[in-house]
Structure formats: C-alpha cells, structure tokens
Design goal:
By secondary structure, the chain is mostly beta strands. It has two helices and 14 strands; from the N terminus they run ββββαββββββββββα. It has a domain at 45-171: Jelly Rolls, CATH 2.60.120. It has helices at 34-40, 168-171; strands at 3-7, 14-18, 20-23, 26-29, 48-54, 58-65, 72-78, 80-87, 98-104, 110-113, 117-123, 128-134, 143-145, 165-166. Strands 1-2-10-7-12-5 form a six-stranded antiparallel sheet, covered by helices on one side. The chain is globular and about 50 Å long.
Length: 183
C-alpha cells in the first residue's frame, strides 16, 4: 500500500492521500492497510468503525473522550465535509488551535486525528456519507463536547449559504475554558 502523508499546521493530525487505481470499470483504493500505514509512520490499532449520513448544513461535534481518548481515521465516501480538529493537549504549544480540511468523494483524502484532539465536521452536500475508524470504543459517559462556535478557538466554518443543523447536545457544547483537556 502506498499512501502520501501530508503534515498539518498542528503536529499530530495528518492528511492522507491513498493511491487510487482508476480504469474504465471505476476505481479501487485501500482505505486501510495496517502494514502499509505502519510503514508510512501511522502505527495504530482500530477497534470500532462508524458511518454517518447527513444532509447539507449538518454540523457534528466537536467531540472527544476523556478518559478513553479516541484517535480517528476519517473519510468521505459520498459527498463532502469540512473536517475540523482542535488541539486539546494542554502541554502543546498549539493548545486551542484548529485545523480544517475539506474531505470529499472526489479528492478521496482521509484525515488522521490522534487522541488529544476534539473533532467535528460540517457537511457541504446532501447525502454525505462519512466513515471513521476509532482506536477506542465510543463511551457516552466519557464524551465531551467543545462548543463549535467558541470565539476562543475561532473556527472559520464555511457556513455561507448553509442552513445550519445542529443537535441539542452539540449546541450545548462548552467553551475551551470549561471543557476538560488532555495533559
């Protein structure tokens, strides 16, 4: 498996471009290969796969777990998202900073988000299918939500022309000053 790893502005998250084989039949790519990713520098073990489908304008997140922190490998198989990771590692010089990456069924990029980050996304097209692999199981009793619109973080969501749809739980997210953080 050949993958291209593209570092992000904040150390930890990595954009992944898999090798895509296309011909008259369609396309083929390996979305996960433990040995190939290990050789590329991502030696992780996944325990859970998740799939969400959303209409345009749905904002999910910014979620994280303490304890039982999750690393996530995320990708879009249909549609498009603006995917965000926020550094919640208190010891990091990038604490509170965010990165945003557009993941689409056309660019076929994936994003690795290690433990220590809050994660969320905004769907940019109707019928977006978002898949993610997790390094720890979902445990609702340990889940926390960072406010998607916390001015201390200042995420620049591409909201132009979108009718924002957000769950009650995510709308009640806490500010960076209020959420528990990682060491």
């Amino acid at each position: 498996m050949q993958v291209k790893l593209i570092p992000c502005e904040i150390p930890g998250p990595v954009i992944i471009e898999p090798q895509v084989h296309e011909d008259s039949r369609g396309l083929f790519l390996e979305s996960w290969n433990a040995e190939g990713f290990r050789e590329a520098g991502l030696d992780v073990e996944f325990v859970q796969d998740n799939h969400s489908r959303s209409r345009k304008g749905v904002l999910r997140g910014l979620h994280f777990q303490i304890p039982m922190a999750q690393g996530k490998l995320v990708r879009v198989v249909n549609g498009a998202v603006f995917d965000v990771a926020v550094d919640l590692r208190r010891s990091s010089s990038d604490f509170g900073r965010w990165i945003g990456v557009e993941l689409t069924d056309q660019n076929r990029r994936m994003l690795w988000i290690p433990a220590g980050f809050a994660h969320g996304f905004l769907t940019l097209r109707d019928g977006t299918d978002f898949l993610y692999k997790c390094t720890a199981p979902y445990m609702p009793e340990h889940e926390h939500t960072l406010a998607w619109n916390d001015p201390a973080v200042g995420i620049e969501w591409p909201l132009e022309g979108a009718e924002l749809v957000i769950s009650e739980r995510d709308a009640r997210g806490l500010s960076l000053a209020e959420v528990p953080v990682f060491a």
